[in-house]
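Two records follow; treat each independently.
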Amino acid sequence: LLLAATSFAAMAQEKKEEKPVVKTRLSGGLEAGLPLGKLSDSHDYTVGAAVQVEVPVSGDKLFLTGNAGYSHYAGKSAVEDLQVVPVKAGLRVYPAGKFYLGADAGAAFLVNKDDVAGDKSAAFIYAPHAGYVFNVGAKKYLDTAVRFESTSKFHDAGKSLNVLALRVAYGFSL
């Protein structure tokens, strides 16, 4: 009887200490932004779409991220639009519940290099961001974020592309 009670107590303790398994997450969403600095002199806004994967590194607090998408920078009057494909990797940390901070870096590829007389077809890109995840169902969520994004220049005499952007994405756990 004592052995059965001890075994039952040990099993109950093990179940109590088990934490839910955090799984890889996938999301896809829309992005919109306002140009900052010199870019605002030549372009009105940017819109785009992106897919993102989050892979847990440390429980539900730290994730590796991978992100790829398409961004369209709308030129003013006689200025040609820019078409950019950013590909980034980064880290995301959840310091308090569903609130997160993150940073991504990678390469941005200028799709219409010939149309805009670009000197380079690829440039360095980085994007610090902050956001919040809203649960919308079992293993489903809405990811909202604000970010500053900067792409180094595609023209030797040009300036960086700086944008303040909003991302709204639908996601799910795999």
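The next record belongs to a different protein.
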Amino acid sequence: TAVGGATLASSTGAAYEGTRSLRCTTGATASDGFYVNIAASASTSYVLSVYLKSAGGANPTPTVRLQCWDDVGGLVNTKNAVLTTSDWTRIEAQFTTAGGATAVRMYVDTPTATAVDFYADALQIEQKNYTTSWVGGGAGATEVRAAGALAYSLADLAGHDDFTFAAWIRRGTR
């Protein structure tokens, strides 16, 4: 559902998965964008994610915002991302719904009064407190989740005085 002066259209201009994505063109008003309502359970951890890409135009590297609201406690998380025309950016937000919550509303909008044109694809909601790899498909899909890996370079850890690393390691196969 469009918010403010935004217009939404199905587009073949870019797609993270398949041949179409949602194209959102906003006016020059803060909070223009779109939202999606999602059924949820009370006091439950979720993570929402969506892939976004700039469609170019007058602002080829816009900042957009992902906001998650539940129907009882209000705003539960917000994240910003800068988009480019060359790569898809996955933006994600983890949160726990309030007691009594039955729905979540995910907004993708502009945090400032700037006209923005972007694509959105591969929306995923997971009932956990971490994001997993995208599994696409749709009706009749037969895709399975690929094995994941956690990777950090030593450069990413430079400058941190303290950190903890823990792992379960299994040798061989079952």
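Discussion point: The chain has one helix and ten strands. How would you locate this feature using only the token line?
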